[in-house]
Amino acid sequence: MTEEAYLLKQKEEQDKYEALCKRCGACCGANDGDPCVKLARDESGKYYCTVYATRIGMQKTRSGVNFACVPIRDLRPNLPFKDCAYYGILI
User: Fold this and answer.
1) CA pair distance 41, 60, nearest whole angstrom
2) What's the whole-model pTM score?
């Protein structure tokens, strides 16, 4: 497999994985009362990250608590949100 083919396959896998997201906001604290300051809601009620492309790393909650934002895959097998679309495939 060429490097180009490998990178294309990786992008396709990432896109397929990301398509599972229901934009519920649970992984960003929408359900626990102290969400990430970068979490926003659109007019349809779906959540989104305002800095999605650069979200990985240290962030803050609305109350000022520091936390490390990690890819949701890195939470396995301790995914705490049972309603998350990823829950069934990560554990």
Assistant:
1) 17
2) 0.73
